[in-house]
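Folds vary. Our protein:
___
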Amino acid sequence: MGAIGWPQIILITLALLLLFGGKKIPELMKGLGKGMKEFKDATKEDGDSADKLKD
């Protein structure tokens, strides 16, 4: 089992373009970025509240 290389990345990109079209891709990436930011913020808040409970 090898790692993902350039041919696989190109194939995945082409499949996404065929499935969603060129206009939907930026919207999907924007939503993904927002979701990752919210997750990161939530985990940071959980860590802060856990630290406060220890004191």
